[in-house]
Design a protein that fits this description.
- The structure is a single chain.
- With about 475 residues, the chain is an alpha+beta fold.
- Strands 3-7-8-14-11-10-9-23 form an eight-stranded mixed β-sheet, with helices on both faces.
- Helix 2 crosses helix 6.
- The longest helix is centred in the C-terminal third of the chain and has 26 residues.
- The protein binds one RNA strand of 76 nucleotides through strand 11, strand 14, helix 10 and helix 11.
RNA sequence: CGGGGUGUAGCGCAGUUGGUAGCGCACCGCGUUUGGGACGCGGGGGUCGGCGGUUCGAGUCCGCCCACCCCGACCA
C-alpha cells in the first residue's frame, strides 16, 4: 500500500513499472539478485492466465506432464547451436550431498534436451506420433540485467514439446500454437499482438525457424510475448528420436517447442496501466469487482452491510471482494484498488441505502467520468455488460495506440527517426548485415516478419536490394 | 567483465572538530474520524554492510573485503 503518488509514465516509465508491481503487491524482490517472489495477487493473475492457455492446449489435443529440473551437462552439448546459445546463462550444480559430481548438472534453462532424451525412448513407431506434451514449471537463466516479470533469473512458464512424423505436421503445429498464443493475448489479455517469423539472428538457439507474437508497450517499446519454434530434425538427430514408418523405414522425427511465461504479466501491466496504477483486463483480473462500504457509525454500518451482502449475493457469478478493512478511509481504498487495477468498483454508503442505488466506478475511465450512480436492481446484468465493455475497450484502446505508433518506412533516415518513438515496418532483403547495422546504429532490432504481408516486392530499407518481405523494427525489452 | 555510484530501523534520509544514534513514512495500542490518499496522544523496532587497525572512546579516521544499484556487450 502506498502513501505517495506513483511516478507518472511520462516522467519515468521504468520507475512507474517497478512501483506499480510493488505497490499492487504483484511481486517482490527475492533475497537472491535477479529473482522475484510472485505474491498472491500476482499469482492469482497467473493462475487465470494458465487456465486460459491450458484449456486451449487441451482443446487441441495436448497433455500436461512434468520433467526434471536438473539436466546432465552433456545433454545440452549434444545440440551445437543450442549449447552455444545457452552456455553463458547456465546455472550449474557441481556438488551434491557434499561430493563433487562426476558430471555437472545444469538447472534447466529450457527442456528440449531432457524431453528429447525421453522422447527417443518413448517413440518407436509412426503409431506413436504425434506426441503432444506441455509442461508448467520454471526455468533458470543467469541473466545479467533483470526486471520484475520481464527478465528474472528464474521465471515461470509453460513449455510445449511435440514430435511429428513430417515437417509439414511440425510446421502446422508450430503455427497452430502461434495462433493460440495470439488468440489468448487478444481475447483474454486484451493485448493486440503481431504474429510473425523471427529473423535467423533472433531465432531460438537450435531452431530452424522461430515464430513470435510481439506486443507494443505503453512507451512504444516491443515485448516478445510468446514464441513457437519449428525445430526441424535438429533435436531429433541430437537425441536420436526415431520411428519406423509404414514402410518399415527408420525416420527421424520433426519436433517443435513453444512457450509463454510470466513475462506476459509485464505485457499486461505495460499495455493497459495508467498513471493511477494497473488496469487489468476483466477476463483475467483476480478481482473483477470490489465493494467499498461507507459508514460513519455502527448504526449506518449495519444498514450499509445489509445492502453490501445483498449485492454480493446478486453478483455471485463474478470474482468479487468486499473491502471491509477498518482504519483506512474510503478514499484510501479507492486509490488502493485503482493501483491494483480492479476493473469495477462499487461504493455503497448511507445515501445508497436510502435511494436503492450504488456508486459504480470503472477503472478504465478515471475520475468523475467513470463514476455513476445506478440502481441496485438489475446490477448483475449491468456489471456483466460493463465488464465486457471494458474488456473490449481495453483492446480497442491498445490497438489504436499500437497502430498510431507503427509507421511504414521506405528510407533509412526515416527508419532511424521512427524507431526512437515507435515501430517501423519496412522491406528487408533478409541479409543479417542489414539488421545488424540497424541494431548498432539505432538500438532497434528486427522483431518479426509479420505473417500478414502486403505481397509483391520492395527495396530493402537499408541496402536497397530487392526484398520480398516486410519486417518490423523496434527497440525491445 | 569494463565505467560510475551507494551501504545508518521495513522504506526514504540526517548525523557538525571522533564523545555512546535521530527524523519522516510504515508498523502496534487507544480515542476521534470515514462519499477521493484523515488526525491526536502513546509505543515497539538498530550487532550503523563485514573484518581488522588507530584511539581513553569510531556511524565518523585508515586498510582490506563484501553486497547492491546505474550505464555498456547477451536474453522468454
Amino acid at each position: 500500500m502506498a502513501d505517495e503518488k506513483l511516478p507518472t509514465r511520462s516522467e519515468n516509465y521504468s520507475e512507474w513499472y517497478n512501483q506499480v508491481i510493488l505497490r499492487a503487491e504483484m511481486a517482490d524482490y527475492a533475497p537472491v539478485r535477479g529473482c522475484m517472489v510472485v505474491r498472491p495477487y500476482g499469482w492469482a493473475l497467473w493462475e487465470n492466465m494458465q487456465a486460459g492457455l491450458d484449456r486451449r492446449f487441451k482443446d487441441t489435443g495436448h497433455q500436461n506432464a512434468a520433467f526434471p529440473l536438473l539436466i546432465p551437462m552433456s545433454f545440452l552439448e549434444k545440440e551445437k547451436s543450442h549449447v552455444q546459445g545457452f552456455a553463458p546463462e547456465l546455472a550449474v550444480v557441481t556438488v551434491g550431498g557434499g561430493e563433487t559430481l562426476e558430471e555437472p548438472l545444469v538447472v534447466r534453462p529450457t527442456s528440449e534436451t531432457v524431453i528429447g532424451y525421453m522422447y527417443a525412448r518413448w517413440i518407436k513407431s509412426w503409431r506413436d506420433l504425434p506426441v503432444l506434451i506441455n509442461q508448467w514449471g520454471s526455468v533458470v537463466r543467469w541473466e545479467m540485467r533483470t526486471r520484475l516479470f520481464l527478465r528474472t533469473m528464474e521465471f515461470f512458464w509453460q513449455e510445449g514439446h511435440t514430435a511429428h512424423a513430417t515437417p509439414e505436421e511440425a510446421l502446422e503445429e508450430t503455427l497452430r500454437i502461434l495462433d493460440i498464443y495470439a488468440d489468448f493475448a487478444i481475447n483474454e489479455a486484451a493485448i493486440p499482438v503481431i504474429k510473425g517469423r523471427k529473423s535467423q539472428a533472433e531465432k531460438f538457439a537450435g531452431a530452424v525457424n522461430s515464430y513470435s507474437i510481439e506486443a507494443m508497450m505503453g512507451d512504444t517499446r516491443a515485448l516478445q510475448s510468446a514464441t513457437s519454434h519449428d525445430l526441424g530434425q535438429n533435436f531429433a538427430k541430437a537425441f536420436e528420436i526415431q520411428y519406423l514408418d509404414q514402410t518399415n523405414q527408420l525416420q527421424y522425427c520433426w519436433t517443435t517447442s513453444w512457450g509463454m511465461s510470466t513475462r506476459m504479466i509485464g505485457a499486461i501491466i505495460m499495455t493497459h496501466g495508467d498513471d493511477q496504477g494497473l488496469i487489468l483486463p476483466p477476463r483475467l483480473a483476480p478481482i473483477q469487482v470490489v465493494i467499498v462500504p461507507i459508514y460513519k457509525n455502527d448504526e449506518e454500518r449495519s444498514k450499509v452491510m445489509a445492502v453490501v451482502e445483498n449485492v454480493r449475493a446478486q453478483l455471485s457469478a463474478f470474482r468479487l471482494k468486499v473491502d471491509d478493512r477498518t482504519g483506512v478511509t474510503p478514499g484510501f481504498k479507492y486509490n488502493d484498488w485503482e493501483m491494483r487495477g480492479v476493473p469495477l468498483r462499487l461504493e455503497i454508503g448511507p445515501k445508497d441505502v436510502e435511494k436503492g442505488s450504488v456508486a459504480l466506478a470503472r477503472r478504465d475511465v478515471p475520475g468523475r467520468e467513470g463514476k455513476s450512480f445506478v440502481p441496485q436492481e438489475g446490477l448483475a446484468a449491468r456489471v456483466g455488460d460493463l465488464l465486457e465493455e471494458i474488456q473490449a475497450g481495453l483492446l480497442a484502446r491498445a490497438t489504436a495506440f499500437r497502430d498510431e505508433h507503427i509507421t511504414e518506412v521506405a528510407d533509412y533516415d526515416t527508419l532511424r527517426e521512427v524507431v526512437q518513438n515507435g515501430w517501423a515496418r519496412a522491406w528487408w532483403c533478409g541479409n543479417p548485415a542489414c539488421e545488424t547495422k540497424v541494431k548498432d546504429e539505432t538500438r532497434a532490432s528486427t522483431r518479426n516478419i509479420p505473417t500478414e504481408q502486403p505481397g509483391g516486392k520492395g527495396h530493402c530499407v537499408v541496402c536497397g536490394e530487392t526484398a520480398s518481405e516486410q519486417v518490423l523494427f523496434a527497440r525491445a525489452y
